[in-house]
């Protein structure tokens, strides 16, 4: 996360990134009810998109590269 804070904004459908100075920017948008965030050991960001029943993986905090939908999750 490199000193940044990531926040889901469920109703707005996006994930915000807040830098060390406290400025927020839109990091991901167009999501349907993002409700959770976690970081993997490799630094990837995982976002639970509840409105689409999937988990979005953002590799190296760059761009989205994979998703897993509800049938794949246990």
Q: What does this 3D model show about the protein?
A:
With 74 residues, the protein is an all-beta fold. It has a single domain, classed as Thrombin, subunit H. It is 0% helix and 53% strand. A hairpin with a 4-residue loop joins β1 (5-9) and β2. The termini are far apart. The model is unreliable at 62-67 (pLDDT under 50).
Please describe the structure with a list of short key phrases separated by commas or semicolons:
flat, 53% strand, 74 residues, three-stranded antiparallel sheet, Thrombin, subunit H, single chain, four-stranded antiparallel sheet, mainly beta
**Tally of separate helices:** 0
N-end to C-end Cα span: 27 Å
Whole-number mean pLDDT: 82
Find the count of extended strands (DSSP E, 2+ residues).
7
Low-confidence stretches: 62-67
CATH class call: Mainly Beta
What is the CATH architecture term? Beta Barrel
Biggest pleated sheet: 4 strands, antiparallel
Strand order of the largest sheet: 4-5-6-7
Q: How is this fold's topology laid out?
A:
Layout: E1 5-9, E2 14-18, E3 24-28, E4 34-39, E5 45-49, E6 54-59, E7 63-69
Antiparallel strand pairs: 1-2, 2-3, 4-5, 5-6, 6-7
Short description:
Helices cover 0% and strands 53% of the residues. With 74 residues, it is mainly beta. The chain has a single domain, classed as Thrombin, subunit H.
